[in-house]
Specification:
This protein is mostly helical. The chain has a single domain (about 15-105), classed as Orthogonal Bundle (Arc Repressor Mutant, subunit A). About 55% of the residues lie in helices and about 10% in strands. A two-stranded antiparallel sheet has the order 1-2. A hairpin with a 2-residue loop joins strand 1 and strand 2 (about 85-90). The longest helix is centred in the first third of the chain and has 17 residues, at about 15-30.
């Protein structure tokens, strides 16, 4: 029996900073690496957070089901798409994300 995500019924919009960090991590990782499946990204994710270290760049913790729910939600919204043999952000969402990051930086 598959494990039920503890985040399935939560309104993830209340976690906007965490979602922004997951987005940024995916943007950086998918820029230099092709993820051919969601499973490939989920398996590589511990390396993603290990890369962040103590540099105050991260979500403060993670749960595999949260990352899976985030990825699935982005795919359903058309924000993560299959292209060039792997998954990446759509051009529209990538542009929106970069604008969000720029606004957050100010």
């Amino acid at each position: 029996m598959a494990e039920q995500s503890p985040f399935k019924d939560l309104d993830l919009s209340s976690f906007w900073k965490s979602r922004l960090m997951y987005d940024l991590q995916f943007l950086l990782q998918s820029h230099g690496r092709v993820y051919k499946s969601q499973e490939a990204y989920l398996q590589a994710y511990p390396e993603v957070i290990a890369m962040m270290g103590d540099s105050h760049f991260g979500t403060g913790g993670w749960a595999p089901s949260f990352v899976e729910d985030w990825f699935t939600a982005r795919v359903k919204a058309g924000q993560i798409v299959q292209a060039d043999g792997g998954w990446r952000f759509s051009e529209d969402y990538r542009t929106e994300l970069l604008q969000q990051l720029q606004a957050y930086h100010r």
